[in-house]
Amino acid sequence: MCGHWIRPPPPPPPLLQHRRREAMHSLFSSKSAIRLQHSSFHRISSFFFLKFHSDDSIQLDEATVRETLVSFNNDWKKAFDFFNWVESHHHFRHSTTTYNNILDILAKYFEFDLCWDLIHRMRWNPHSQPDHTTFRLMFHRYASAHAVNDAISTFHRLSQFNLKDHTSFSNLIDALCDHKHVLEAQDIVLGNNKDLLIDAGFIDSVGKTKISNMVLRGWYKMGWWSKCREFWEEMDAKGVHKDLHSYSIYMDILCKSGKSWKAVKLYKNLKSQRIQLDVVVYNIVIRAIGLSQGVDFSIRVFNEMKELGIKPTVVTYNTIMRLLCDSYRHKEALALLNVMRRDDCYPNTVSYHCFFATLEKPKEMIGLFDRMVGSGVRPNMDTYVMLMRKFARWGFLRLVFMVWDKMEQLGCSPDASAYNALIDALVEKGLIDMARKYDEEMLAKGLSPKPRKELGTKFVIHQEEEAQC
């Protein structure tokens, strides 16, 4: 594990040390500490201030540590450096949650051996015992790296942690289905592969309906519509009870496969059987009716849902706003942002993405982005990439850099998609030297750049590209 530790640089001159200590005293005054709670940018910058000039009296709470780790999610070395630093220099006692944060980051970059070192360290600490979440994220990271046998081997090792139970089995199947290993999941469930054999008792304890729903959702995520239909019919043939979740998944499949009218028909059949529907089903129906009949019909179903006493969620509002934005009815969609707050349902990043995807004036997009940040909704990487690509397509390089700078100010470390969006914009403008600089910076971080003839780069296969999710 020592091989992963990053050696600190030599200490700065005494005068610079004194100035930085003064800066840190100011940074951790009461007002600055409050700001630190709300800005990951301050967390990152404060880490580099603190790292080599630390004051042992400074107290770091778990929320600050967790959000700083999240801000380093695209740079595992810095994340791991920070994780060890707060423990050794500030005697911060890591919890299971902070361990899970760092495990997810390390596993994202295939540092699985290091992950297991940490898991065994957790095992002997009464304050940070591994839990189901610990191994759920390991299942997901193994599955995203297409290391199916390692995921299954991990499940078998869980008896060492008293966690080899139906919850872990459910998490394993869910992870495999979530990352397009549905065939392997089916082999486990049906016992078709002797190398993947698992005690049938786990399947019975989870329940055939729940397992079947996971497999159905797995085919949905793969976009294999014929397999979805085949498996749906197979559930009937095998006598598997279909619950409301089964129907909601299949209705979503019908929408995504371009048969939204069939989803509406299935909804009407459920209503005729007097089956009590929930908000998840209504969210899918609102989208299906919007696609097949128009947004005005969706609003009617929305009002019907509210009259039945079913409280809309942020997904409900986002669905209607997306339908309105797709019809270029942005004023009505903006009005919904205020309506949802009155219903104690607050906008999230997806709410604003509905607008960014369809707005066509840079000034409106920048204004809405400022409103988003000002209202406390934190942009994610998809937000930044969407804006940068759109501004680059329109030829506004200054706005691309404005978004890039804002991303760094808000403490979001760029991932491969963000770097590629910026480099593409620079290449398009003929700024090859600057593009090459960012390309090299990207490689130094272990991220996978696109091959570009203009930069003389060739295609190199990196597993990270599939696992950065």
Automatic annotation (TrEMBL):
Annotated InterPro entries: PPR_rpt, TPR-like_helical_dom_sf
Keywords, sorted A to Z: Repeat
Alphabetized PANTHER family for the sequence: OS03G0856100 PROTEIN (PTHR47447), PENTACOTRIPEPTIDE-REPEAT REGION OF PRORP DOMAIN-CONTAINING PROTEIN (PTHR47447:SF23)
Family listed: Belongs to the PPR family. P subfamily.
Record has Repeat as a keyword: yes
Keyword Repeat among record annotations: yes
Start-end of each PPR repeat: 243-277, 278-312, 313-347, 380-414, 415-449
The name this protein goes by in its record: Pentatricopeptide repeat-containing protein
Signal peptide: none
